[in-house]
# Entry
Amino acid sequence: MNSTSSTPLDGMIFGFCTVLGVIVTAACLYRVRRSPTIANKCITFAFGICTVGVFFAIPAISHWVEELTGVDNLPKLTAHICAIAWCASLQLTMVDIAYDPHYLRTAIYQRATVAAAVLLVMIPLWLNANLPGTEFTTAFASHVPIRIYLLVYLGYVFITCAELAFMCTKSATFNWPGRPWSSIGYGSSAIAAVFGIGYTISKGGFLIALTTGSAWSLKVEEKLSPALSGLAIVFLFIGLTLPVFGVLLRKIRRKPAPAPK
# Structure
């Protein structure tokens, strides 16, 4: 097995995001039972798959899975596949909310096709680059196949985060009668997408700079990227679950007081 190059910050951030993910996924499951719309189903799937991804990104869990399976970097591939499914699900969620219903079917096909194409490229790259003693992190980006794999993955995340930032901002400006938390929630989601863009720029920029021979400190990248990733996940969890808790609060406020005996 390879030795981990992860930092203690990774474990704290991804561990916290895993716990938060379990909570918000449960909240979204409650909402789906009451309102099984495409957007609600996609949100629930997105949060569930994201929780699985960040769970496998916890260094201790990643090491345990590698020891159990005997396959290096399998948890990293799993986390990246989950991230792609997460991004695609969020895209479909926001398309259902932000765009015309007649465009929904076309949008689903378009985004599902792009996500599948990225996976079809990434998996062979992973198989080719998965050499003994290496990890799919920027610490091993001097290995060209690993660098290409990471750039493909980060390129997809950058594109989806850019679209999510646009659609969440658009939804935040909608008039939501009686639901002010919806505007706040989508605004928070837009901030999350911006943090996601920052994450891809931090990590992807390092990889591009390394290719040109002018990379900055690896320690800076290893601290900055996990922080931006964690902030993106937290803001998105909060943003897209605010409508759920807003509905619950409204029902509590409207609940009639018990009649006096």
